[in-house]
Design a protein that fits this description.
Layout: E1 4-5, H1 11-20, H2 25-36, H3 51-60, E2 61-62, E3 67-73, E4 80-85, E5 91-99, E6 102-106, E7 110-112, E8 127-130, H4 133-147, E9 151-156, H5 166-176, E10 189-193, H6 197-204, E11 211-215, H7 221-227, H8 230-233, H9 236-250, E12 254-260, H10 268-278, E13 283-289, H11 303-315, E14 319-322, H12 336-350
Parallel strand pairs: 1-2, 6-9, 9-10, 10-11, 11-12, 12-13, 13-14
Antiparallel strand pairs: 3-4, 4-5, 5-6, 7-8
Helix pairs in contact: 1-2, 4-5, 6-9, 10-11
The structure holds S-adenosyl-L-homocysteine.
């Protein structure tokens, strides 16, 4: 019989499972608290359960834990990058960023990615698999335990396309923001997507209070197609319509991410087009100086170009921030730590 991934069960499912085992429902409450509030490292730690119940759970369930293989700490801003090994040997990376307003964790939602964005390191090896609910929870739990810092904010901006792992991601968000768990406010959670239109519309109907961030990266359909293959499937207007729908349904202000690539999408004309495209929407633009990766020829826009681009948007009443380059000294860009680990493993295997 296949074992149950007990940490992926939500409160209701755990209650149902305990009923099946013939256990009282308050026991399910205790176990849930051990897993999701006290962040226990195993069933053995759950000392208020009988020995026989602990044995039963060990026999019928798996208990997901992530093993840190590498932790890098930035000497510049204290940002920490974690490389975690999953039970099947795959590795994922997560980041802890410390801000004045609290600690933010950036998690991966898939091992690899199949979206193929041209400037992104996470997609180069393609998609290996989606992460389970318990693995995503563990990214947060493990960081909280290892760092001793309380996590108050979450961004789904690590490796993977969150909406390509839709059911697990939505369940993960519900469990993380549940009063029975870490109780992280949904308003402090941001989900970033390259723009899977049907999924954005579905997400809008989930009754969640999370922020949607769209990876826009270009202000014309033609340029967007050059940078993001997903644009062939869902056109710019269609994606923006889905974003408007998200705003109408949730009332949550939208974020547009725009990675500035030198000479590609950073001209005056690009800024003017962008204003036409999103001016008047209730939104915020996050400009990200592109993080060059080895495999591509892309370079960062010059500081002045970035500042001019920002000014142009601001003059037209658009709310803009330039993303601070956190952890620049520790392979800050998406997927770079995991990638260099895999390359090292491969070269070891060849030797
Ligand atoms: N799949 C999601 C999450 C990806 S990572 C999405 O596409 O939104 C979060 C953001 O970082 C996205 O906007 C992504 O396009 C951007 N990004 C990825 N690699 C980058 C790089 N090398 N430089 C700048 N931004 C990058």
């Amino acid at each position: 019989m296949e074992k149950i991934d007990i940490k992926s069960l939500d409160y209701g499912e755990l209650q149902a499972y305990f009923k099946e085992l013939g256990e009282k429902s308050f026991r399910a409450g205790q176990v849930y608290q051990w897993m999701h509030e006290k962040l226990a490292d195993g069933i053995g730690e759950m000392t208020n359960l009988s020995k026989s119940l602990r044995e039963t759970l060990n026999e019928t369930c798996t208990y997901t834990l992530l093993e840190p293989v590498n932790i890098l700490t930035s000497g510049i801003d204290g940002t920490q990058k974690y490389l975690f090994r999953l039970a099947d040997g795959n590795v994922v990376e997560s980041v802890l960023m410390k801000y004045r307003h609290g600690n933010s964790v950036c998690i991966s939602t898939q091992v690899g990615c199949r979206m193929g964005c041209r400037f992104c390191a996470s997609t180069i090896g393609g998609l290996t698999r989606c992460l389970t609910v318990s693995e995503m929870l563990e990214e947060v739990y493990r960081i909280q335990k290892l760092s001793g810092e309380r996590v108050s904010n979450l961004v789904l901006m690590g490796t993977g396309e969150p909406l390509d792992n839709y059911d697990n991601v939505v369940k993960f968000i519900r469990m993380l923001s549940d009063g029975h768990g870490l109780n992280i406010s949904q308003r402090n959670i941001t989900l970033s997507t390259c723009g899977l239109v049907p999924r954005i519309r579905e997400l809008a109907e989930e009754n969640l209070q999370i922020t949607l961030a769209l990876s826009l990266h270009a202000s014309s359909q033609e340029k967007r197609k050059e940078l993001m293959p997903i644009a062939y499937k869902y056109g710019l207007e269609e994606v923006l319509d889905a974003c408007r729908f998200y705003f109408d349904k949730t009332g949550r202000r939208l974020t547009f991410e725009y990675s500035l690539v030198g000479g590609v999408n950073d001209t005056d004309e690009d800024a003017a087009e962008l204003v036409k495209l999103i001016g008047g929407m209730n939104c915020h633009v996050n400009l990200i100086p592109v993080n060059p990766i080895e495999e591509r020829e892309y370079v960062q826009s010059e500081k002045k170009v970035i500042a001019d681009f920002k000014n142009k948007l601001e003059k037209c009443g658009i709310n803009v921030t330039i993303r601070r380059e956190m952890g620049r000294d520790i392979q800050g860009a998406c997927g770079q730590l995991r990638k260099s680990y895999m390359e090292q493993k491969e070269s070891e295997a060849e030797e």
